[in-house]
Design goal:
By secondary structure, this protein is of the alpha+beta class. The protein has 1 helix and 4 strands; from the N terminus they run E-E-E-E-H. The chain has a 4-stranded antiparallel sheet with strand order 1-2-3-4, with helices on one face. About 15% of the residues are buried. The mean pLDDT is about 95.
Length: about 100
């Protein structure tokens, strides 16, 4: 699906050669509400979201395939650590 230019969001940089390989976990219902603070562009099959719940933040990754969407999360971190992780993902330094 092609979106008009003004509707594009943040695009993740290409993965760097010396990147950190993150552990991705199955999502668990740890909080009744999760707030999405930032997200990457919907024009890609993989979308990342910086989320917050219960005073902690984490990154959610959704990979859209032809049959389903597969969702994983990073560990839940203190706000500063999670925001640093978000920046590393956007810069292609972690995935």
């Amino acid at each position: 699906m092609e979106l008009p230019a003004p509707f594009h969001g943040i695009h993740v940089a290409p993965l760097q050669k010396a990147h950190e390989k993150l552990e991705w976990w199955e999502p668990l219902p740890r909080a009744s509400r999760v707030r999405v603070h930032l997200h990457t562009c919907e024009c890609k099959a993989t979308v990342f979201e910086l989320c917050q719940a219960g005073g902690l933040k984490f990154v959610r990754r959704s990979v859209r395939g032809p049959e389903s969407v597969i969702v994983h999360e990073t560990e839940w971190l203190r706000v500063v650590k999670a925001e640093q992780l978000w920046q590393r993902i956007l810069l292609g330094e972690a995935r």
